[in-house]
Each structure stands twice: as structure tokens, then as C-alpha cells.
Design brief:
about 140 residues; 6 strands; 3 helices; single chain; alpha/beta
Length: about 140
Amino acid sequence: MGMALGNNKGKRGRGRAPISEINITPMVDVMLVLLIVFMVAAPLMTMGVPIDLPETRAQAMPLQTKPITVTVEPDGALSIEGEPVTLDTLVASVAALAVEGTDERLYVRGDTTAAYGAIMEVMGELSGAGYSRIGLVTVPARTP
């Protein structure tokens, strides 16, 4: 017959105090998983130039107010709502029409033969002035 000698420190019994140590390993595991999730998701939430790229087969969006439309013609000439402007006066002209300030929705219409750089220059000027709700206008795709 064997007999255990010792003080029985690790065994529970009557009159013993509860174990007051907290096991933090599960908490550290959860925090590390959350850290990894945020590290992966954070780069996906940022963009260089915030624009709305419309789908060509999407339905038109309902609008409460009429957006300001900037047109880039094939030769690079600019106009706002049909009034000719230059790149230097573009931001001032848009600011004069913007009721909601830099929260105003702006549409950029570019001819298919217009230089891509000219359209990006217009969008860069508007974005640099603080306008963040810039959209590109397309026409619906023809169904075969």
C-alpha cells in the first residue's frame, strides 16, 4: 500500500482558498488574431484617389440634388455645366457652384478620345481641393 506524503498544496479540499490566478493565454490568442485581422483589412480600406467607378450595366443612382458635371472634351478643353473653364479656374468655378462645399457630388465626363492624362489631371485638381465625392460618367452598355 502506498501512502502519499506531503502537504497536498495542489489538491482542492475544505478550507482551502480558491485559485486567484488568471490564465491570460486565451486572451493573448484572441488579441493576436484581432491584430492580424486589422493588419490585413486596413490596407484594403484606403485608396489613393477616392472615385466612384460605375458599372456599365448598373441602374442609375437616385439623387436628391443635381451633381456638378465637369466635361473633358476630345481636345482637352474643360467646361462646367456647359460653361467653358480652364484648369486654373476649375476649382474656383466648382466652389462657386457647390452648395454643400467639398461634400458636393461631382461628375467627370470624359470623351472616349480624350487623353487619359487630361481626365486624371482634372480629377487630381478636384481631389487636391478637398472634393472626395468624384464620379465618372459612362453610358449604359449596348446589349447584343
